[in-house]
Amino acid sequence: MDQVGIIAPETRPSPWGVAAKPAVQCSLVEVMSEELARKLQLEEESHVFTEEVLSEDGPFLNADNIDTSSDEVLAQMLQMQFDKEYDAQLLREEKKFNGDSKVSISFENYRKVHPSEENDSSEDEVDWQDTRHDPYKAVKPTPTPKKGFVGKGKDITTKHDEVVCGRKNTARMENFAPEFQVGDGIVMDLKLSNQVFNALKQHSISEQRKSARLHDKKEVSTAEKVVDPKTRLLLYKMVNSGVLETINGCVSTGKESVVFHASGGSMEDQEIPAECAIKVFKTTLNEFKNRDKYIKDDYRFKDRFSKLNPRKIIRMWAEKEMHNLKRIHKAGIPCPEVVLLKKHVLVMSFIGKDQIPAPTLKEAKLGLEESKQAYYQVLSMMKQLYDQCNLVHADLSEYNMMWHEGKVWLIDVSQSVEPTHPHGLEFLYRDCRNVSQFFQKAGVSETPHARELFNIVTGLNIASDNQVDFMAEIEALEKVNEDHVQMHGKKVSLYQEDDDDDGPPRIYDK
Ligand code: ATP
Ligand code: MN
Fold first, then answer.
1. 226-357, superfamily in CATH?
2. Where is the RIO kinase domain (predicted)?
3. What is the DSSP string of 166-215?
4. What digits encode the pLDDT tens for the residues 172-206?
């Protein structure tokens, strides 16, 4: 978006401005600005993360505090508000018109915001996922309704209808490269003709190629920014649709993600926690490249992996985290509850209070008694994870467990795999080593060493008394499983099947 001149709110009073503290407001322009992205980048580089949580700058993004000093932004906001109210009125009229009649007539074609735009559908993108049902199946984009007869045969709308088509074209602009500034047409009721759309598309492609050639280095650095324009728009839409009330600030900037705190809003048929965490998976591939092995060999994702482009692989990480969190939550293990997933952005319940995240086990200063309690919780959690969820965390350590309300909470499960993953048992052994070392250091004398912990969790009695032999046995077990898969196309039944209905049916050779 072009920089829009900012006129101080005092000189341009507006009904939308919050008069009390104009100086600390965070504007839409700012949210959309490169400066913010740069600031995030700096924060990331200086590793000042958690201190930023309660920044005095007020909410990061809030429907009420959007700067109204720009006519352009104001016009867009008003248009959106108007469209929303118009559609609500239309819905009421439709209900009234149809009454109890068995045959109903849809007014959908008269809506200002076409359902296909509302759902943000576009041909090659995964859409809002219905996180309450099968997370594996992306909800099919609401199809553009077949435009048959509407009304009394007077108004026939076809899919070639100028308005419908124009709106679709505008929505499709979102698929252009993030660097290609498409402006805010998407949120306005902008209609692009096929001709204009095609010209823009062509331009976008050639620009992309040009900048890839000329600014190879610069390209990498822009890709590093998590909150790129597309992500900002996603977040903005979440606030605008009321799912979230405000996005308050950054909780953490990790290697693979940036986590924000948000105040929950409301959704028609789903309760949203008062405090939410938004995990934005980085759209840069650098970090994910070395994590290929977690997902590529995970048979749940195997078929899809090869067909995906990099953008989609990142979305798959977010999807994987959501899916794993749901399984873990279902088993009753304390972990964030999934609210919704959109593309590479996962919204979940916030572990902590009043915008302050609970400390990780690393940060929490636990006394000996509490450490002991924590150890037993972690032990039973690991067993439950293995037995009931059929999962291995694969990055379990004091950094990925939080201490909240006297309980250990599990987070960061995007890399978690099933134990039959070709490296599943190695990952588990590494988890055991981290856990064992941490609690031994904390002085919990009951803590067994890693090998013993591994045997307790898996129930596999590996007898070796040194790490080298133990590892060799683990690898041999993994190999047996792999060979079995090679030969029969199925996995061995080392592991218990759970009744989880979240994924495609899993095949066990009983
Ligand atoms: P890292 O690379 O640092 O491990 P990551 O990208 O893997 O980070 P997470 O470990 O999931 O991301 O989250 C990073 C941090 O964000 C956590 O240590 C925690 O402080 C915070 N966080 C993540 N999820 C939540 C949540 N649901 N509630 C509160 N805080 C959270
Ligand atoms: Mn982490």
1. Phosphorylase Kinase; domain 1 (3.30.200.20)
2. 216-459
3. HHHHHHHGGGS-TTS--TTTTTTT----HHHHHHHHHHHHHHHHHHHHH-
4. 655 554 444 554 444 456 666 777 777 777 777 66
Residues 6+ apart with CB under 8 A from 153: none
User: Any bridge partners for residue 129, and if so which?
Assistant: 341
Mean pLDDT over each residue of the chain, to the nearest integer: 73
Fold identical between 226-357 and 359-487? no
Q: What percent of the chain has pLDDT over 70?
A: 55
Cα–Cα distance, 221 to 205 (Å, whole number): 20
Query: Whose structure tokens read 């990055």?
Result: 395
* CA–CA separation, 435 and 432 (whole Å): 5
Residue 221 has pLDDT above 50, yes or no: no
In this structure, which residues have their CB less than 5 angstroms from ion ligand 2? 400, 412
Q: How many residues does the chain have?
A: 510
Catalytic positions are 395
The 3-state DSSP class for residue 349 equals strand
* Helices 467-488, 424-441: crossing angle, 10 deg rounding: 150
Helix axes 368-387, 424-441, angle to 10 degrees: 170
Q: What is the pLDDT of residue 170?
A: 60
Closest residue by Cα to atom 10, ligand 1, is 412
Mean per-residue pLDDT for 65-82? Answer: 56
Domain residue limits, the chain: 149-221, 226-357, 359-487
Q: What is the pLDDT of residue 452?
A: 97
Q: Contact at 8 Å (CB) between 115 and 141?
A: no
- Per-residue pLDDT tens digits for 256-293: 899 999 999 999 889 999 999 999 998 765 555 555 65
Question: d(Cα 58, Cα 407) in Å, to the nearest integer?
Answer: 31
Instruction: Give the model's pLDDT for residue 45.
Output: 44
Ligand 1 residue neighbourhood (C-beta within 6 Å):
251-252, 254-257, 259, 277, 279, 336, 348, 350-352, 357, 360, 399-400, 411-412
- Which CATH number fits the domain 359-487, given the four candidates 3.50.30.50, 1.10.510.10, 1.20.210.10, 2.40.170.20? 1.10.510.10
